[in-house]
Design a protein that fits this description.
- The structure is a homodimer.
- By secondary structure, chain A is α/β, with parallel strands linked by helices.
- Chain A has two domains: about 150 residues, Alpha-Beta Complex (Quinone Oxidoreductase, Chain A, domain 1); about 160 residues, NAD(P)-binding Rossmann-like Domain (Rossmann fold).
- Chain A has nine helices and 15 strands.
- In chain A, strands 3, 4, 5, 6, 7, 14 and 15 form a seven-stranded mixed beta sheet that branches.
- In chain A, helix 3 links the parallel strand 8 and strand 9.
- Strand 13 of chain A pairs antiparallel with strand 13 of chain B, so a sheet runs across the interface.
- Chains A, B: GO terms for molecular function: oxidoreductase activity, acting on the CH-CH group of donors, NAD or NADP as acceptor.
Chain lengths: ~350, ~350
């Protein structure tokens, strides 16, 4: 019997107040225990970093329970089975897991999905063919429902969700306006991804640029950021506009009780009434029964070259906290992934 | 040929700033012109007064165009055909029209629906079997979707829409909490309409009473008032709660630009995300193809005694402005109707 490996893991050291900092995380090491019957030992290859993880650091009521203080940070992973006491898996299998920010994990196999590296690069299981891609698909199919000729707006448009939203909406025949931070990302979504218009939200005249880019108003706003993008979008919404809400990255670091400025809620409620708006929060899990459709459809779009993606890969689990803090400020360019093992 | 009748009508004299006053209306008289081929002369029997009319007095962008200054106030009516040059109608026919705040009107017949006084009292075409009842039906069927055992909350619960919402939700198996103004209305919705709980929103501990009445939270909030009722409902909303928005009577008199207090919008957006809420504005017209289902279903419920209604009838068109101003302050008790002709 070989010696037990030593696992590296990143735990939540303390809850952030407002913007998270490096000290909210702590790196720990621990020798992996023996496997019980039916278990497998996973060696993490890639860890996905996503904005929702900010929510797990708080203890506020949410759709998911928070990470405990001292607990391993949550996250989707692509892993290699390195040992198996489970007949369904053998050493060398590549699986999608949700084993979090750690180099090794033990699973009973119930939460694993085998990946076939022949079909698509395995990292896509964390992005375009994974949770972010399915978030885009489910939000459009069930809530946004873009029709041919309608105008769809999405922010964080070079990111994992936004890039999929925009490309899928183009496939459905919508006119797509993407919002991104900086000229490089704007060039990418327009030239590589084929968005109709790209707007830099750092521009001082950003609201005016958005209005000019939407001469017929906005029919679908896929909300994943909030903040000043919402403020620019709101007056442009058309009657019967649909607003799937899958994220609010601009607000994740705000104190939850009181916000400054005048109260915008009455004006928003009045617009909801006068324009027959739909605002609908969701997480992709709610639509889990549509995942087979998604895998088939998105797989076909990727192979046809109609659904492209960009990955921003950071090396080393120890760099995950810094990369995550950058993600919350829009510093990544493409789907942010940590390469945990070579 | 008999002499032409003189029509009495109430026009919009000026737009209100904030709360409307009597001086915003003006009563006029005018001799009715001769009928052209294909037209009918209508004599108004009953005029419906509804909160949405407040919106028509403003010139803000809305789903419907505003009443012009000097124009007849808009409104649903039940009328008698007094002369007809249209083969489809004969003198004496009773019709549902939308001829507004006036004693006589000329129609080409295209907007009329014949009523059969044998089936139900003709005033129900303005209430439970009319626009308010269909608003309740369409909002529940398409957006609220109450399931057996869920908790539904509705305000203005003794009113035309609220009373129908609550009784229909009971038929669908939900637990129904009604909010109304004052003990008389509360007694009525609990005892006559069979709501599970009635709460007086004038009570100083109204939010605490509401929380106590909803130990399992709120699954459907049928929004027709806004204001402090929304504030009490908001923290009690369950995951996946649905909020059809058909009215905001508490806000109709507010200046549209700026509201006081801290900004509640970020907290509401966060709740939409964390709780997967649906907020959906609507007007019943959007679901017009469901009206035949509604007439059949609601007619059956009325005849079975499962859908009751109460009318608050005011005599004389000249009293319509005062009655309407009272409606905006919740002074009516039941569906407010003006008897225009005996």
């Amino acid at each position: 019997m070989t010696g037990q490996p030593v696992a590296t893991r990143i735990v939540l050291a303390s809850r952030p107040s407002g913007k998270p900092v490096a000290a909210n995380f702590r790196l720990e090491r621990e020798t992996v225990r023996d496997l019980a019957e039916g278990e497998v030992l996973l060696e993490t290859l890639y860890l996905s970093l996503d904005p929702y993880m900010r929510g797990r650091m708080d203890d506020a009521k949410s759709y998911a329970k928070p990470v405990d203080i001292g607990g391993v940070m949550e996250g989707g992973t692509v892993a290699r089975v390195s040992r198996s006491s489970n007949a369904a898996f053998k050493a060398g299998d590549i699986v999608l897991s949700h084993s979090g920010w750690q180099s090794h994990a033990i699973s009973d196999g119930g939460d694993l999905r085998k990946l076939d590296p022949q079909i698509a690069p395995i990292t896509t299981a964390l992005g375009t063919l994974g949770m972010p891609g399915f978030t885009a698909y489910a939000g459009l199919r069930n809530i946004g429902k873009p029709k041919a000729g309608e105008t769809l707006v999405v922010a964080a448009a070079s990111g994992a969700v936004g890039s999929a939203v925009g490309q899928m909406a183009k496939i459905y025949g919508a006119r797509v306006v993407g919002i991104a931070g900086g000229p490089e990302k704007c060039d990418y979504i327009r030239q590589a991804l084929g968005f109709d218009v790209a707007i830099d939200h750092y521009a001082s005249d950003f609201p005016a640029q958005l209005a000019a880019a939407c001469p017929k108003g906005i029919d679908v706003y896929f909300e994943n950021v909030g903040g000043h993008v919402w403020s620019a979008v709101f007056p442009l919404l058309n009657d019967f506009a649909r607003i799937p809400v899958c994220g609010l990255i601009a607000h994740y670091n705000e104190a939850s009780s009181v916000s400054s400025g005048h109260d915008r809620l009455p004006a928003v409620m009045r617009a909801i009434l006068r324009k027959s708006l739909t605002i609908r929060g969701f997480i992709q899990r709610e639509f889990a029964e549509q995942r087979p459709d998604f895998y088939q459809q998105a797989g076909a779009w990727i192979s046809e070259g109609r659904l492209k993606y960009k990955e921003d890969v950071v090396d080393g689990l120890e760099n995950a906290p810094e990369a995550f803090l950058g993600l919350l400020e829009g510093k990544n360019f493409g789907k942010l992934i940590v390469r945990v093992a070579p």
